[in-house]
Amino acid sequence: MAQLEVDVVAADGKVWSGAARQVSAPAAEGDIGILVGHTPILSVLRPGAVRVLPAGGGAPLSWDVDGGFLSVDSDQVTIVVDSVSRAADTARTGR
């Protein structure tokens, strides 16, 4: 089964990297959901929650971000954020 390759990066280093089934993020024009095969996009992020559903079926991961940008191309998702903190519902494997 196809999957997304996701990198979440903050100014102080990598937050999370791995395979995912779905990513959602607070894009400037509203929340955006990314699934396998999504068209290429570059979007500014507003403050809000970035959520990742890992490909292995593990617990969803979530981080609160203060802004940044998101890039999607060929099932590669890169999220670069200004600052990040772990959301209350994040599994212990998140930052």
TrEMBL record:
Transmembrane segments: none annotated. It comes from the Bacteria. Pfam families: ATP-synt_DE_N. Residues 4-83 form the ATP synthase F1 complex delta/epsilon subunit N-terminal domain. Keywords: ATP synthesis, Cell membrane, CF(1), Hydrogen ion transport, Ion transport, Membrane, Transport. It is found in: Cell membrane. The keyword Transcription does not apply. Gene3D superfamilies: F0F1 ATP synthase delta/epsilon subunit, N-terminal. F-type ATPases have 2 components, CF(1) - the catalytic core - and CF(0) - the membrane proton channel. CF(1) has five subunits: alpha(3), beta(3), gamma(1), delta(1), epsilon(1). CF(0) has three main subunits: a, b and c. Belongs to the ATPase epsilon chain family. Produces ATP from ADP in the presence of a proton gradient across the membrane. PANTHER family: ATP SYNTHASE DELTA/EPSILON CHAIN, ATP SYNTHASE EPSILON CHAIN, CHLOROPLASTIC. This is ATP synthase epsilon chain. The gene is atpC.
